Amino acid sequence: MENTFDPNAAAVANSGIYGLPCSAEEAQIIIIPVEWELTTSYNRGTVDGPFAIREASLQVDLCHHDYPDLWQKGIWMDDFPTELTELHDKMVPLCKDIIDALYEGTIDDDPEAFAVQYAMIEEATEQKNQWLRDRIAYWKAQGKVVGLLGGDHSIPLAYHQYLNERGVEYGILHADAHCDLREAFEGFKYSHASIFYNTLKFSNVKKLVQVGIRDYCHQEKELALSQPNRIKVFFDRDCRRRIYEGGKWKDLVDEMVAALPQKVYLSIDIDALDPKLCPNTGTPVPGGLEYEELMYLLNRVREAGKDIVGFDLCEVSPAPNGGDWDGNVGARVLFHLCGVAAK
Question: Are 337 and 266 in contact (CB under 8 A)?
């Protein structure tokens, strides 16, 4: 970090994320942006989430309330490859064709053609996942703390593949409005709605603790109930009822943290929050966590002495008219995640 850097001054143009002047070599924390959202079928725009967060980060004051020296550890944002951006853009029309056909009931009119499109999308996603696994490994080999920034919530599968390849046993704290336990949602194997269905195929994932959940299908609920020792869902309505009847958020968080093993991966879908905080996210749902409830939960994970093996923040989407509220909230959630994960 440059000795002349003033953390009290306004960020200058062309500075790094959060206005920090550090290089990749100097930074302890590396953020890999993954500008990818092929299977989103409601609100699109999460592909622009990393850019929106980076822009909003320049307005974040650097004296973090809980981790005031965080800025000194250094945070550096990587680049997403141009060739993968081009590949993504080629696949978007194919995904749209499939999703439109599903909603219009014409998906069976030409099954062979749609099968080819599904295969092309799957192959493209695997190509992206291979790059991302290699990139995570590259930074981890240098002793960096690595976080992912989406894009839709399909992107962290590559991180779990990386951890599985290395035999790391860990649990996942997953904050989201949705369970994301669907099998090949809308026919897409690597759907954003299937991220944890796919991740749970790895036996080294010992526990999945889900928080903020308030929108799910029968299949997802049945899967969770069938594996009570491995999946623990804190449904939002159940949590609210306990609080309304005199319970405390602290007691609920105690249960959440106690359910996690020593090594923990943090996976945050911004729609875990009340949609007033993320109105343009891919699939907003009424209800959800308040901002400080999420901050308290993340802090308690750190205070419990858990080892953070990785993290992601997904589904932040800027407003179509250029509003910066979603990026503003996302930049602060990401900053906090960096503080929790930092060594």
Answer: yes
